[in-house]
Amino acid sequence: MVIVVGGMIGLGKTSVSEIIAKEFNSKVFYESVEDNPILPLFYNSTDEEIKLNRYPFLLQLFFLDKRFKSIKQALTSKNNVLDRSIYEDWYFCKRNMDLGRISELEMSVYESLLNNMMEELDELPKKSPDIFIYLRGSFDTVINRIKMRGRSYEIDNKLVDYYRYIWEGYDDWMYNVYSKSSVLTIDMDNMDVVNNFEDRNNLIKIVKEKLCLD
Predict the structure, then answer these.
(1) Is residue 28 helix, strand or coil?
(2) What confidence score (pLDDT) does residue 156 get?
(3) Treating both helix axes as pointing N-terminal to C-terminal, what angle do 86-98 and 55-75 enclose, rounded to 10 degrees?
(4) For residues 73 and 80, what is the distance between their CA atoms, to the nearest angstrom?
(5) For the chain, what is the largest distance between any 2 Cα atoms, rounded to a whole number of angstroms?
(6) Are 95 and 141 contacting, i.e. CB atoms less than 8 angstroms apart?
(7) Which one of 14, 21, 73, 213 is CB 3.0 to 4.6 Å from 81, fit for a cystine?
(8) Is the pLDDT of residue 95 over 70?
(9) pLDDT band, residue 148 (cuts 50/70/90)
(10) Which pLDDT does position 41 carry in this prediction?
(11) With contact defined as beta carbons under 8 Å apart, do 52 and 45 qualify?
């Protein structure tokens, strides 16, 4: 069984992944954040520095490499949970292209590489996740939780417009573009799985029902 946990930045992917992994005695493949040398540069650089150094494109290549390794490992062993995955990677790249932070040429190179990777995944005995758990919340919830998390490079006020732009298109991608598995939407405006034991148990119950494990 392979479960993907995804959704907007700050909504609790890692916490949800760890709760589910503990319940199913499985491994979590974490998003490469703390060991990512490009992410602080992506968030903190000026527009001029971003254009000169192509940080958005470099960041997408970094994430794509890490997520490809993770999904290959997850699909070839039992009971794994992915804290974000290769499937969402394209969405972030496309939104950054739409903002002019990634060029059309860079997007073409990226998509060619991604398509080659997806073709390789199609050769595996297990080709896709069993379920995608989509963490959904209001923009206020997103911003509040990013601030609560306290990563210094994520909380600059100039990033608010960027976060909003990513947030605005997420539902459309999730419900109209993603097609690799069934989707379970979790309303993070009304669920606190970190501090509320009842919410945590409810999350596990909902996931098991979706997977037909009860």
Answers:
(1) strand
(2) 67
(3) 160
(4) 9
(5) 54
(6) no
(7) 21
(8) yes
(9) confident
(10) 87
(11) no
Catalytic center residues: 83
Asked whether 5 and 190 are in contact (CB, 8 A), the reply is no
- H-assigned helices in 7-126: 13-24, 39-44, 47-53, 55-75, 86-98, 104-121
Residue with tokens 């490499």: 65
pTM above threshold 0.85: yes
Q: How confident is the model at residue 134, as a pLDDT?
A: 96
Q: Rg of the Cα trace of the chain?
A: 17
d(CA 35, CA 79): 25
| Domain span holding position 95 | 2-210
Residue with tokens 């991604």: 114
Query: How wide is the angle at C-alpha 103 spanned by C-alphas 34 and 122, nearest 5°?
Result: 65
pLDDT in tens, 29-74: 887 776 788 888 888 888 888 888 999 999 999 999 999 999 998 9
CATH number at residue 167: 3.40.50.300
Structural domain count, the chain: 1
| Residue 153 predicted with pLDDT over 90 | no
CB 76: neighbour CB atoms within 10 A? 12
Q: How far apart are the first and last CA of the chain?
A: 15
Partners of 183 in beta bridges: 132
Q: Which residues pair with 187 in a beta bridge?
A: 136
Residue type, 65: D
Q: What length does the chain have?
A: 214
